[in-house]
Amino acid sequence: ALMTAAIVWMLLGLFPARWALIGGFVAASQYLVLGVPFKMGTFGYWSQSYWGGCVAAMGGALVFGALPRLRREPQIGASVWMAIGLLWLANTRPMEGLLAALPAAGVVLAILVGRRFDRDTWLKIVAPTVLVLLPGFLAMGKHNQAVTGDALELPWNTHYEQYCIFPLFIWQDLLPDKEWRHKEMAIFHGEVEKDMHERHGSLSGLARTTANKVARFGIFYIGPIFVWPLLLGGWGLLRLGWARFALGTIALVFGSALIKFGNPPHYSAPITGLVVALIVQSLVSLEQRFRQGRLAVQGLLLVAWAGIGFGIVQSADSNYATQRRYRHQFAHELEAKPGKHLAVIRFGEHHTRGDHWIWNDANIDASKVVWIRDPGPERWDGMLDYFADREIWRIDVGFEPKVKPPLTHVREALLAD
């Protein structure tokens, strides 16, 4: 909802209210319901999982929405929203967010130079931006220090060094294997990541993976419905200065995806608002240039409404095909029990690597429920000592497909063993 609101706010800087609201509908329907990450996953995975791009898309919309307002006149409000958007990008997609912010920074610099750094630019653009960014970056440093021990090291970097072997860019070699303590992690990092690297190893493989990235981007961000206004009404985009800026920024961010190994659609999330703006401009052109253009626009939006119903049904079916809803149910059940609890998860042969059960609150020791993988008999004595104040439960996940796992109280049995 916040992402859609931010995109509508951005579009109000470029279009009349009617078209901005249509753009909000385009964003909500395409990215929250219809969008699929290309031949895999559920419809609308940005709204049906935590593996999404809504927060980064919101940050990008706030940054890009501030630019047309600041070009008209310096505004404290627009400057504050721009700074908040920059912080959102820095905390969600640092690399792609930086690439998206560079053209925006060029526009702001041109505004400052064009106004000869007058009093209004200092008071209404520079000062509000600094007053938001400075405490924001200090808070980021405090968070990094707490998680990684270094104010300048992001948690992702620490995770990458501990577990990952894939290189960041396609011209780099694989890193040595790490000491993974669990089978699921060894399979993912030691096999899936190696396979991802090998797919880029030949010219034909590189061509296929590049084509897949382009197709994946188009299917998710534009889709089979909104590609038509771009084809029929998008020929005049290059005549508009803001559209050239949008196309250049999209090319810069998506271009970075072509030189990296992995590129699910949410990696490019900072430019979501710009894609929507181009679709809306194409709808405007379609309505204005064709005799039945308004009817065509209305027809496309009706098809999108029908697609939303289809997407909702598909998402529900996809969610019920997994066991992750049971994790949610068990979490509520254990939270409702008195005392503190330890949920020990054993994974069976039907468990898939996308069905995650192990995650905890930041302060694990203070949590009412702690979730861990079964550590094996050689490590149980230490675990029993450490979690002596907790009731221990075992959940066997994936031993029978599409069946609710059993919840078993096991402390006494473990102590007896």
Could you give the topology of this structure?
Blueprint: H1 2-12, H2 17-34, H3 45-48, H4 54-72, H5 76-92, H6 94-114, H7 119-148, H8 155-163, H9 183-198, H10 203-221, H11 223-233, H12 241-258, H13 272-289, H14 293-320, H15 324-336, E1 340-347, E2 369-373, H16 380-386, E3 390-397, E4 407-409, H17 411-416
Helix pairs in contact: 1-2, 1-4, 1-13, 2-13, 2-14, 4-5, 4-6, 5-6, 5-7, 6-12, 11-13, 11-14, 12-13, 13-14
**What kind of sheet is the major sheet?**
4 strands, mixed
Encode the helix/strand succession as letters: HHHHHHHHHHHHHHHEEHEEH
Strand order of the biggest β-sheet: 2-1-3-4
Strand content: 5-15%
Mean pLDDT: 89
Distance between the termini: 52 Å
**Rg computed from alpha carbons, rounded to a whole number of angstroms:** 25 Å
Contiguous helical run count: 17
Query: Low-confidence parts lasting 5 or more residues at pLDDT below 50?
Result: none
- The share of residues in helices is 55-70%
Main attributes?
single chain; mainly alpha; 417 residues; four-stranded mixed sheet; 17 helices; 64% helix
Give your account of this protein's structure:
- The chain is mainly alpha-helical and 417 residues long.
- It has helices spanning 2-12, 17-34, 45-48, 54-72, 76-92, 94-114, 119-148, 155-163, 183-198, 203-221, 223-233, 241-258, 272-289, 293-320, 324-336, 380-386, 411-416; strands at residues 340-347, 369-373, 390-397, 407-409.
- It has a four-stranded mixed sheet.
- The model has no long low-confidence stretch (mean pLDDT 89).
